[in-house]
Amino acid sequence: MQDSKHIHLIGICGTAMASIAGLLQLKGHRVTGSDQAAYPPMSDLLAHLQIPVSEPFAEANLQPHPDLVIVGNAISRGNVELEYVLDQHIPFTSMAAVIHDEFLRGRESLVVAGTHGKTTTTSMLAWIYAVAARKHPELAPSFLIGGVAENFATSFQLQDGKPFLLEGDEYDTAFFDKGPKFMHYFPDALILTHVEFDHADIYKDLDAVKTAFKRLVNLVPRRGRIVAFDGAPNVTECLSRAFCNVERYGFESGSMWQIVGLTHSGNQSEWKVLRAGQPWAELMLPVAGAHNVLNATAAAALAAGQGVPLDCIIEALSTFRSVKRRLEVKAVIDGITIIDDFAHHPTAIRETLRALREANPGARLWAVLEPRSNTLRRNVFEQELIDSLATADEVVLAGVFKMENIPEAERLHPESVVRGLNVRGIPAELHTHADEIVASIAPRLRSGDVVAILSNGGFDGIYEKLPQQLRARVTVKA
Q: Where in this chain does the entry annotate a coiled-coil region (predicted)?
């Protein structure tokens, strides 16, 4: 793709797909895309970039024929555009292959992988490099993140510096390439956060997930580095045959990068890091949650090992502004705070709710969950989901998203989760869709409440509907 081409992306509103669309546009290509239904934040990003998005999928979206089609990993055989591409012999490829071929050659590939924390950690790492580049232009980072980093107001960037920072996704690549996307990225250095069972639609069990991460570890050259979480046996197992230097981070004594003296005050976290047992840094992060302290420590450790000065790391973390849909405050109305969070795995849900507890002591905490991810729609984590949601004071569940696509024997039954919470003394209820949820909870919300809305999709517009209802209530009271 040396010359300018027309490149069309099928499934362009996926977080990574929208980002690669922006990168290709920066390289001078004419980019178009299509999706079944667009929703923020990626629909907003594409509109800002003036990249045309056609809805829904249709053969007409591919006329005249583009020079190349990128097929998103959510696109399966039977999709009308994919079938047309195959019938008409239009050249096609995957997003991950384009990233490798167009953007990684000749650069330093820095990859953040793991079941949880990838997007936030990659955003932190990108901001560290961006701050450092003010004094050291050679560190100016290019990046591709699976979310909109608030410090940049975008999910991608293309610079002249050598570092290219990537969120390494373990999900499969495309209908014709069922290996993980991160196998295309060949990291020079790697952060490995957590390894847990996820993506139940493509991985049979935890062993299959671990096999994927072991293969990623096997890609790192001897001259490379791996910075890995110290608090999980699964991570340790995946590192057992690494050929490069491995540095562990976390709370465990003896770790290369050990967190000590962690304190929280509202949304601010402060801690010290020992490097090989010796004092190294005092860090502050204006974001709540022990999980975010872990993410920040991982980013700091990788950056330091790659030559980024410590003063730049400290400055960057103290001014980090999080990621869209990660503990994002959508509205504060009549003293009621509405939070949007992408959490779609029991572990992520637990850590999100714990972080909100730390930041809002004494508040009544609501968890409003849409079981939408391919893992959460299944019953494999039903008990773990109950345990995670029990962190909240009030729980509201929506119906399983497109439950007809999940075999009955595998399907999550939200009513069982509600019963499990009620048995534990946690008020919980089930509603079929967002309008019912809003009608039920809006009259009961009071000043001081924190409402965490948890979904990895659009959740039927609840992010707009609930604030609208609360504003109307305020108007009536006035």
A: none
